[in-house]
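can u pls check wat happens w/ flavin-adenine dinucleotide
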Amino acid sequence: MKLYTTTFNERDTTSVRPASPARSSIFSPSSKSHRRHLCPPPTNSIRRGMSQLEPYEIVIIGGGIIGCTTAYYLSHHPSFIPTQTHITLLEASTHGPAQGASGKAGGLVARWAYPKALVDVSFDEHVRLAREHGGEERWGWRYVGCGSWTGRGVIQTDQGNEGKGYGDALGALGKKGKRRSLEKTLGLEEHLDPKRSAPLRRKKKTGLPDDLLWVSEDLTDSYEPMAGPEETAQVHPYQFTTSMLALAQSRGGVDYVQGKATGIVQVDGKVTGVEYLPGLESPISEIALKKTIPATHIILAAGAWSSTLLSNLPITGTRAHSITIRPPPDAPIAPYVLFTTITLPSPTTHGQRGKRTIIADPEIYARPDGEVYACGPGDDAPLPDTVDDVVVHEEACESVYRHVGAISRELREGTVGKRQACFLPTVTTEGGGPIVGEVEGARGLVVAVGHTCWGICNAPGTARAISELVMGGEITCADLKTLHPSLFL
Ligand SMILES: Cc1cc2nc3c(=O)[nH]c(=O)nc-3n(C[C@H](O)[C@H](O)[C@H](O)COP(=O)(O)OP(=O)(O)OC[C@H]3O[C@@H](n4cnc5c(N)ncnc54)[C@H](O)[C@@H]3O)c2cc1C
């Protein structure tokens, strides 16, 4: 069994178990419009506890953090027996798992994130996973300071052409140029307790902590801590996601298959398989013969692409750009994550400075290996066919670099490493998501989608809940009724 290669070759993937053609269909959800029910969903139908009377064929669609962490929790469930339960993780990218948002996110894990029911389980699970599997070394787990920074930015002449839209992130965004907030701080309103965060403050007017030396104090108007000690942590999202898959595979009974799922097959209201296009070469060839992986349970975890397989899901994607910067070796990069609001002077055109100032709000994450990650706002670029087709806009990456460099000499003088973009899965219905649970009318079809800006934080809670549902018949670690698919589909 190999990681990141097509390991399905020893299994017959070309046929689904025989079914009456009349009753077999590629799953398409009911024609119900996107309505929200007022009462909790009916009890789940997924089945019995894990007495394992029949073998399980579980197919997870999507090798992002939700899919890979779900593979981990299923394979570590007390009832998991490798000879009786087989898990296939199907991923469309030709470059391996975590090529989307899960490999390109900041990596914040916060007790003040949302929704609370999921966060309460997830944060403690992050702590446990890090302790049990050496998360500090393996995926950069650590507690961090986290604050909201407000101040002014100064663009240096050595930061490229000052007049070329440096502050105008909109110029670098999608077709219609709409800027979208990633909305991470929405969870804070009910959580912020000034008394609790007071000891973290520096006794200076700005509130900047003493060890936060990598932003200019002179340019700082204010710094507000977002939470108390040990309430905010971080992981390296790519390392966490790939570690979850590797740990799942180490249990046996877990295969990684590269291919793009094209349909969910069901017979008599019960899932029987996943149709997919094996993608041995990039781009995935439509001419290649479709294959089917038999399934007793399907877990849909395809991030922003989830509604391409279950069209009634109110999920869309928001593209966001990010960069990594390696500061000079002697730079003091203390462990902080900053949500910034930077007022920048207007760009100059033909030597003339315009009148309007520009507000930029990049998020900046110091990482344990000394690298710094920064991301800009979201935009409305259309969702491409697969994660491998995401277009990276150089200008948007350059904007992020100029903005963070405008408040930090250490970042300005650093070397830019990655310039990347990814699609955040967003839920379009009021109240947001994620959406977690079994789909009514499709026994065995479980969705774990729409994690918006908190999927890294909430992956362990989601995955644990799904493992309980599939292996034990019900979710016991949390009350996730408000996230049930019947409220969204
Ligand atoms: C800039 C940015 C910063 C962020 N920072 C944070 C943060 O600090 N903390 C936090 O908690 N969250 C953060 N997030 C949010 C987090 O990244 C997402 O919520 C999370 O990664 C979603 O994980 P996922 O597995 O659902 O989706 P994805 O990571 O998108 O994975 C879905 C996978 O499914 C695959 N797939 C899609 N369609 C198919 C198909 N048909 N067949 C097979 N495979 C398919 C894709 O190729 C992809 O690999 C951030 C997001 C962005 C964009």
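Residues 116-133 form the longest helix (18 residues).
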